[in-house]
Design a protein that fits this description.
By secondary structure, the protein is an all-beta fold. The chain has no helices and 11 strands.
Length: about 120
């Protein structure tokens, strides 16, 4: 069974930066794609960024140009570099790994951006 462990969340002022990490228990190239989602209180979970096995990336419009998803295969880890953070980026951020229709989720890491 795949396990994903996120880290790197915390409290930061608006305009600041954070880098999230997600380490998988197996080779990340086994997955069709890996993604970061987020969920703020009272809202649905939304896709933030995705990287597929070929390296193609996609971003939500709200984070385009501010967030960057990347990976380090040797460490079975993906990252989310978040720059110029805004108060509305406050949420629990979840890592996701997908193989066909099977999705695995991490436990989530809290990101709080203060004004």
């Amino acid at each position: 069974q795949v396990h994903l462990v996120e880290s790197g969340g915390g409290l930061v002022q608006a305009g600041g930066s954070l880098r999230l990490s997600c380490t998988a228990s197996e080779n990340i190239f086994n997955f069709n794609d890996m993604s970061w989602y987020r969920q703020a209180p009272g809202t649905q979970r939304e896709l933030v960024a995705m990287i597929n096995v070929g390296g193609r990336t996609e971003y939500a419009d709200s984070v385009q140009g501010r967030f960057t998803i990347s990976r380090q295969g040797a460490e079975n880890t993906i990252y989310l570099q978040m720059n110029n953070l805004k108060v509305e980026d406050t949420a629990v951020y979840f890592c996701n790994a997908r193989i066909l229709r099977r999705n695995t989720w991490g436990q989530g890491t809290q990101v709080t951006v203060s004004s």
